[in-house]
Fold each of these.
Amino acid sequence: MKKICVLVAGLALGSMAVNAQTLYDANNIMQTYLNGTARFVGMGGAMGALGGDISTTSTNPAGIGLYRSNDAMITFGLQNTSVNSNSFGANLSKDRTIATIDNAGVVFSNKTGNGGGLRFMNFAINYRRSNSFNREMLATGSFNASLGDQVSTMVNKAGANVSELQDNNAYFNTNIPWLGPLAFNAYLISPSYSTDGKGNTTFNGFNPYYTDDYYNSGSYVNNQYLSREKGGIDNFDFNMAFNFNDRFYVGGTIGLYDISYKRNTAYYEEFWANSTDQKDDGHYTLNNYYNVDGSGVDFKLGFILRPIESSPFRMGFAIHTPTYYNLTEHQIAYLDYSMYDSGAQKMKDGTSCPYDANGSDMESETKYRILTPWKFDFSMGYTINQFAALDAEYEYADYSSAKLKDDNDDNMEYENSYISGMLKGVHTFRVGGEFKVLPELSFRLGYNFVSGSTKEYASKVLANNALRTDAEYLNTKNLYNLTAGLGYHAGSFYCDMAYVYTHLNGDFYPFNVQNVAYTQASQNISKNRITNERNRFIVTLGYRF
């Protein structure tokens, strides 16, 4: 790759409409991740009505009101993520193991009285990694289709001509996608002409490489995709909660978020004249380096009620405002190729990348905002003497109501229309229990289920002037977590451990041939079935004082 001379496209293009974000960017940030203290995780995150754990600052803030002493803790983890892909009978797997700091916080409990009314006024400050993006994926297959199909569709719809794609200012043209000149300069798409009986030539648009005159229309395409993602969302909660008569608890949390996400991908295609000789008749690799950084803020309000004074039964309710994210996105792309130039009638090698009028490589930068949906949380809890504590919880968030906004805080209507049409409401169920084996030793079990957020035939549709050059997308299915844990308390000191198994399926597509919103009838490319499995072991060390 040539040395990058960074030119910020979002600024250099001035007032042009910069189209970069998609529903999949919003969906990625909104995904849930079971994390917190080992006690919270060991019970599947089901503590909304039980309270008494600092991790409830992010689910039901009223849970901090049940504290009767100060508490300080830190949580460490070891995480292994395995992503398996299955397409055309080929099973591939990529593993990644990392060490994590999952939680660190402190609770200050202040007793205000013994009689009626307010009894405790508590404060909590908590750090939690609310999402982790660390994973790798390898997918391969032969689709008899090419990314060139999507690119030629995009540039033809944009009405682009050869001179526009060849122009030194092609990447500043507000009417064509960056994928257009990137692919044209690498011979991935080529112009098509027809001649009438009078010798007049007519330009008919662009064709993908493997349907060029040099090849038969039935050319065979071998595809491979490799990605590596890292980063996460760090959550800092500031909580205040109140205990009234040991029967009614109310709390509020201001949540601050810090996002750091990086994704490096390599998409490879190799062309064969037919599926039997497997002769290399051209190949290329499209490399994308994408990252997004930013911050967010939200507010959560929660309640816990013990309706019957003589009963330990509790009910909980919490409402989360939308999280308002302010983000900056960068992307660098380059395409290494060895392709046939039909004009010169020979193979040509090289690298194609976005460039300015001086020939210097450049990257795109866009600033935008995401407004996530409201969340509603309902829970019930019950304790059996000092032996057991049980909790069941339901949470709902309508992902289709999320909004993308530009840097001026105006709605991105084009992108939001796809969010509302292709995302859906997400249902989360949590159940968990804690059982005292000995006065000092507790055993915990939990189950956590999150329904899929994308509709079955959702797809990534890039605008005709999109700066983005990553065409791939993943439609996620249902996610579930199975958890187990142990807790040991010796006086003021305690040590909790938990194990989490996470399973998530999804359908991966390297591109969208027609670059349109798919329906069942128009889904015309084979999918890769992706299975994401995560094993985590976490330990919390704490001290109550």
Note: The longest strand covers residues 220-244.
Amino acid sequence: MHMFRGGGWGSYIYFDEKTDKPKNVSWALIKRVLTYAKPYRFRIIAVLVLIVISQLLGLLNPFLFGLLIDSAILQGNVDLLNRIALVIVCLPILNGVIAITQRWLNSSIGEGVIYELRSNLYEHLQKMSLRFFTNTRTGELMSRLNDDVIGAQSAINSTLISIFTTITSVIFTLTVMLLLEWRLTLLGLLVLPLFVLPARRVGKTLRTLVRQQMEVNASMNAMMNETLNVSGALLVKLFGRTHTEVQRFESRAREVADKGVRRAVIGSGLFAVLGLISAMGMAITYWVGGQLVIEGVFKVGLIVTFAMYLGQIYGPLQALANMPVEFATSMVSFERVFEVLDMPLDIDEKPDAIALQDLRGEVVFDQVSFNYSAGGTTGLRHIDRGDYEDLPAFSRLNGSDNGKANGGEPTSDPLTLPEVQTANSQAREVALQNISFTIKPGQLAALVGPSGAGKTTITYLLPRLYDPSSGRIYIDGHDLRDVQLDSLAHNIGMVTQETYLFHDTVRMNLLYAKPDATQAEIEAAARAANIHDFIMGLKDGYDTIVGERGYRLSGGEKQRIAIARVILKDPRILVLDEATSHLDSQSEALIQAALERVMSGRTSLVIAHRLSTILKANIILVLDRGQIVEQGTHSELLAHGGLYATLYETQFNREREIAI
């Protein structure tokens, strides 16, 4: 991306290098940036006042040195010499107090801006749908929350303050110089055009480098997040890819370093050139002024004073020449932050949404269709795998199964029998098509069907993790789109196939469902899930740290804790996605008995892979290729002799073979 300034301070025009289309950074963006500083306007005013005072004090030193030479030393005025010396000593003390106060104000403003930006960004991300997270790298999000927010904070805390300081310094210093000697002032400013040309030319390159550096740094962070979490590290080790991943990381880290070195060298080169131009201006002033002193036109003190002022103004003039570039560069972070904040919410809550109260638990799917790739937010960017080809998020197209990680059906489905093959592959573009069924209050509905048939998608639509592409879903006659999201989450409890636990204690993971739960309630839920005795056998009991994503526990132990967490929540509607798939036979029997008690009187939607669950179901929904091909009771479906009968007979035969 490159930039040039079009017109005054009102607009900076950027050109995207990929599309070559202009992107305007106008007053609208600047005003939006300033809204984050609005709560601190009184502190900002105080900072600006301190800057003015500091700049005025900075103008005293050259004047005092000129006075010291002409009126004190050359005139032999000891009393004036003593007073000037005392003032020269006091000035740094006063400047130090002002600097400390200004620094405190700056820090409080900057940290406040960080807080507001991070809070707004995190809140917005929490409201994004599951579709967004399945198509966005976590490392990229972390980069936006950290690096870009800090960069945005620096824009307000440093760049904008620097702009005001620079403008104030130039105005004050130039005014004093003109009052002292306007001819020497004009002579010293002859080199000013030489400041502007290199600053603008190099500034374009610097801004491009800043954005590129942010992007490659985000890419590096994303890779670290992928490969340094427990799952990623395990995958790397199991496939012996340690050397490959180290090489890929070194490649990205080297790219980050190269961008940083190039940025530093170009910046240093710019300042070296500007320093040379400053020296030329100083030399011209000293040479002409010295000639005039020799001729008796000027006093020595005036030349010394003027030279000091000239030295003070060249720095701000350099900054002023480069200010449009610096300002535009600082906007890069805000652009990246606002890119996330401006992403629309595809799962949004209506202003007049209702709260579910006294829920009976009737669930109705009315002609529901769903396509993972249609509509909604797709994420921040394509998935960058370094040396490999970029992999955009995809749905079940051309026979590929993108798996649960991308928001589709899980690639493995223990609920079904892998040896049972349907006539057609489950590969398709539409995940669900014209799904209609009704679960009456208190009923148990079992979802069965081949892997990838759409079972998990149905369980994701009920708690509104996604919205249907068409059709309606009702709970007690209320369209889910008309219901408050928190109210919906409060009334639906879900145990997913992949159990997630926070890196915290067992107790805190359970309390996530009900923060005000008592110890007795926690233990009762754990007993119902057949995990209490195991927990008490741990060294620290309920205060045991479960590790990253619960990896210190077995799959069955994690799943029982997840079940206990839902039991503690005590929802009106239960959604169980292969809730007992990792349990041994003994634990499964105890859990099944516990779930039977828990599901009593509640509406339950279960992806059923055990015959015992299927036999207890009030209604069985048989899915194939995203459609309900059969529904009814166990006996009705067996009599029908369709897909369910095939699955049942295979399951029964396998269980009988195991028993023998």
Note: Confidence is low (pLDDT under 50) at residues 1-24, 382-423, 655-660.
Amino acid sequence: MVPLRCKAALFQRSLDFNASHMAEDQNHWLRNVASHVGMQLDVPRHPDISAIRAAWPEVVKACNIDDDRFLQKVAGHFRIGVADVNAYDPQSVKLIPESVARRYGILALSATATSVVIATSDPTNRSAHKEIVSHASRQPVFMMVSPTALAEAVERAYAPARAPRNALQTLVARVAQSDLQVVTSQGEGLLTSLEFEDPAVIKLADLILLQAIRYRATEIHIEPGPTQGRVRYRVDGVLQHVVDLPASAHARLVARLRHLAFGQPGFDPDDGFPVNVGADQEHRGHLLTNPTPDGELVWIRLVDPDYIPSIENLNFGLMEADKIESVLNKDDGVVLVTGPARSGTSSFIYAAMGALTHKSVLSLEGRPETIVPGVTQVKFDPLTGRSFAETLQGLLDQNPDVIHAGEIRDLPTARIALRTAITGRKVLATVHTSDAVSGIRRLIDMGLAAGRLGESLHAVISLRLVRSLCSSCARPFDKERDEKSREAKLASVLGVRPMKRAVGCTTCAGTGYLNQIPLPEVLVITPEMRAVLGKSPNDAQLLRAAQADGMRTFAEVALDRVARGHTTVEEIERVLGIVPTRNETPEEVGPVLVADDEPQDRLTVTTLLEEMGFEVIEAPDGHTAQKMIEAGDENFSLVIMDLLMPNMDGYELLRSVRQSLSTQSLPVIVLTGSANPRDELEVLEAGADDFLLKPLLADRLEARVRAVLRRAGVQIGSPGV
């Protein structure tokens, strides 16, 4: 048996992996071990886990000892223990994201308030140490394990988080491969109850619904395609890809969902169909369908009937919350709530009505989604022959203290709302506009006089929703470490100092965000604002007057949220479209990744980009490109990828880029030699920023590169300028 002896300086005490106490060495410790037994091992000074995994058995064999004995000797030299990877705490595993665990070959076994026990095959990896501290907010205590045993343990430990998706993929394949075909008197292949009551179809539909609720989704999108569709969830306002759906499985799934929504006796489709989560918990699903050339597009809105929003749990900022409370406490006047779809206007209206239940509150709605105790909610029925305005006028005979007039879509409804407010009652109403000032403009455009509007309008509250940082994984913003990130560049231009950065963990499904918080613009109609309205101002004059009167704009509220560590600049840029343009040279903006399996095409693109002044990094296929992007060693400014590549094609690579938190906003241009017009539509829908046909023209490629980067907020100047 050959003893394991290495330089003493290399094997300093490394229990807490304090880099200042670790002796420097020109070679990696595994290479030194191999050299001592006469083996030349080609391992870099800072190898990744794949290199460790490949070299480990060779060194063990050269040492002429078994793997367990080798492991004990290495652990002894590092003065750390040998890990039992079969005894891990599932809650501790969640401290480290799966992508980080796989990248560095680590597994969290247990944790205290200040430390976390980490199984590793390379305790000298300083990058791993930094990532552990960043994600777990604890100091690591390393224990040794062989890379093979570690890889198997990582797979077992993180498998439960992937189980729902794996189950979905299995069920989708089973449904798609079913050879069940029904011949009826009306023709072959028509769907009958035998198909949508097939056990595999039932399980698939149930799992899609239950998993959506588990992931806190508010919407399910089941989208058809010419050969393959997809299922997506809207989680915290953002659509997330769940599973691909072959055309045959899509048709059967849609049939099952339609049966659940419309085929159950005694169910009112407007009330939605039940989705049972547990013995004492039930959601409601509201299903809409639209025909397309490729099949039916299905949209399901999921509602928890037991959830009643309140002003407190909507989590407004302190300044705006005080203004909103003051607005709601006033006995009369119109409170106009504005915002686009999915901006939180409905939740706010329900919360406002709930805060006023000490009064008589009456609400006229198209379809009540939330039943608020203490509020009389009336469903508008157009089959009565009366318009919305006429129905609203009839309800006023009940003399409520507060009335929710629904969405103001026409002049008659607007006039009723204003007349009601003048009589000393409070009116809540909505319009779909982009901001508070536009809400006033919409009413004026309907035909209301600006001066008269000022007499009845009390406030305009405009809303947007942004995702809030996940408290389980968000890490402090590090100026040096994050210097080249998009977050840092945006923050620098906007003049805000970020407090935290999004990371991603199992709690937030890898997004880095959990739940949403509102960004409100609260425009209170003070005597000063009434005087301005009396002069029939334009929008710019209204905005200046509102700001002078104390209204904070969306941007101001959003940047305050960033400074308080509630969200990120990248998130507010996604929602508000704040893309400050910064002038950078191609040398400053970061390298461009070119992924193409054709060497001549790579050379052409690389040459053109280098002539523009960019640094270019090449990848011969999609899989290599994915590894480069995921490694995070380069802060790529742009990816130019071919659509058809071996190992991993452009579609799969594009999905990988868009599904990762760190690369969601990375600009992508797709190249292809295909003349099929559907390719362009599909890659743009999949998330590409632009699309170019081969053979490439130099001026066209340059123009597209500049345009894509400009949309990302970067104005490219000449090299060296």
Note: The chain has four domains: 8-155, 178-303, 318-465+518-554, 583-716.
